[in-house]
Design goal:
- The chain is mainly alpha-helical.
- It has a domain at 1-32.
- The protein has three helices and no strands.
- It has helices spanning 2-27, 31-44, 61-76.
- The termini are far apart.
Length: 85
């Protein structure tokens, strides 16, 4: 049990040392640089551009209903006049 606990603590220690060292470095920065770091950290967890997740909620309920209706209308109709169909 002591060996397993020792190994588990050692697994956490490097990460905590990095975190603690980073916090100490942040404390020495001027406020404008701390703000830059905060914005950078926030950007690391954002959804990459090009994904549709960031569009969630951009349409009103009425707009979403109209869009759904338009999609259903166009996908249910078989268009004639296309050669080879």
């Amino acid at each position: 049990m002591e060996v397993a606990l020792f190994i588990k603590l050692n697994d956490i220690t490097p990460r905590m040392n990095t975190l603690e060292e980073t916090v100490e470095k942040l404390k020495s920065l001027p406020p404008n640089k701390v703000e830059e770091v905060a914005l950078y950290i926030d950007s690391l967890s954002k959804v990459p551009k090009g994904r549709f997740d960031d569009l969630s909620g951009c349409l009103s309920s009425d707009e979403a209903d109209r869009l759904e209706h338009a999609i259903n209308q166009s996908s249910e109709q078989i268009e004639s006049g296309h050669e080879g169909w």
